[in-house]
Here is the input.
Amino acid sequence: MAHYAEIDATNTVARVLVVSNDVTTIAGVEDEQRGVDFLNDLFPDSGSWVQTSYNRTIRHNYAGPGYIWDGTGFAPPQPYPSWTLGDDYLWQAPTPVPDDGKPYDWDEVTTSWVEVTA
Here is the structure.
């Protein structure tokens, strides 16, 4: 099965649909455009369609509603304004979470990790 993300006018994923391999495969080779054409025929008023992958083999992340498409990959919604998008298309805090085995939450006001207490 192939998965396709519908991209709206703001480059945000609206939904993800599954297309059968019978549709996307020709002569044993998957062809992304066949899935795009199928979805455009099925939903003529939809946004554009881009293939996505559960195992992150294409387009960096598996797309979901609210993810952003930049023409190369899918990024999840930004969790905090201070976080930046890494080369792996995952959000990075300004400082790494402490590696001392204790639980931490991000505090955007202080832009730091705060230990979670019981």
